[in-house]
Amino acid sequence: MCDAALDALGATCDAVLVAANDPQAATWELGHPQRRDATPGLGALGALRTALAAADAQGAACVLVMPWDAPFVTRALGAALLARLRDDPRCDVAVPVHDGRMQPLVSAWRPRALAACDAALAAGERAAHRFVASR
Question: CB atoms < 10 A from the CB of 75, how many?
Answer without folding.
Answer: 14
